[in-house]
Amino acid sequence: MNQSPEYLFFDDTLALYNSMLDDFENAEKSIHIETYIFADDEIGRKFKNTLIKKAKQKIKIILLIDSWGSNVSESYFSELIKLGGIVKFFNKINILRLDYFTENHKRNHRKLIIIDNKITYIGSANINSYCLNWKESMLRINNEISITFNKIFYQNLSISYKYFFYKYPHIKPYTYKNYQIIRDVPSNLIQNIKTAYISLINNSQKRIVIESPYFLPGTKIIKSLINAVKRGVDVKIIMPKHSDVVLIDILRDRYLGILHNGGVKIYYYTTQNLHAKLMIVDNNKFAIGSANFDYRSFRFQFEILFTGINKNIVQMIDNHLNNIYNDCENFNSDIWMKRPFFQKILEKILLPFRHLF
Hints:
There is one protein chain. Helix 1 (13-25) runs parallel beside helix 2 (42-56) and helix 9 crosses helix 13 (341-350). The protein has 2 domains: 7-165, Endonuclease Chain A (Endonuclease, Chain A, 2-Layer Sandwich); 195-356, Endonuclease Chain A (Endonuclease, Chain A, 2-Layer Sandwich), CATH 3.30.870. The protein is an alpha+beta fold. The strands form 2 sheets. Strands 8-9-15-14-13-10-11-12-16 form a 9-stranded mixed beta sheet, with helices on both faces. The protein has a 7-stranded mixed beta sheet with strand order 1-7-6-5-2-3-4, with helices on both faces. The chain is globular. The chain has helices at 13-25, 42-56, 78-82, 100-104, 145-158, 168-171, 192-202, 219-230, 246-261, 295-300, 311-325, 333-337, 341-350, and strands at residues 7-12, 30-35, 60-66, 86-90, 112-115, 119-123, 135-142, 174-176, 179-184, 207-211, 234-240, 265-269, 278-281, 285-289, 303-309, 328-330.
């Protein structure tokens, strides 16, 4: 297992799943999975059956699945549990809470897999068939930082059933060589990933590329991006022309004219849904993780980001981007200006609720 490359980047979901399943097959001690969505479909069953097979081999299996994002229950994993596998559902929905919506809305959006404390997958992809034709962004890491990711996994597992907890241990950043692991928990005041993004933008010198399926950036990020353009930085943002959340597509249009007029280059990916969540800065800095560029990720979600300096990782992401650009169309300000009056009204109506999408 350790003879494979130190870093591999995946944007093809089927290739990603095959790599994960191969690593599961080769696991010798443990498989830990933290995901927002684990579906009862062809892919979900393939993963479940492979985990059952490994549990029979006495491999330690732990699943941490968000109870809002997934449509499966403990009964779906009954055979795995009987074999000693541990399945936890993060913050089970409680309809009796007086603050039902605000508290139940705080979800675990992380996508993290650790195998044998040696291999880590981190990025944007859930476990379901629905996204097989989506473009994702997942990094496979094969080094000792997996020990730290495993520690983070257990920390989140320990609060999976708690609505109240001491936040600091769960937002403390971890540093490894030229890399950082940055985490968020729901908070109006402390938004570490947003702060990290702004820092990367403000310190950029040559270029910035952002990929996000849902792009509702907020005033501070918009200002930082436009200021970067004024410094001579080439700033590009890539998003799907049509994501899987129509209301976000409508609301994001409110921001695009400002960015375009500020010199930011905007691209719509047209072929499939683009679900990648990443940033590269200059020719050596990258950030990849579970967070979208939107209010909900920054304020309400448990998110995780891996960022650092590595030209090889940036080159792998650049190879991905070169293929993405081939299936993109440029933002057209004339079309944007002529968008329907009803849409402009709907944008204003949705604006106060932007943190809920």
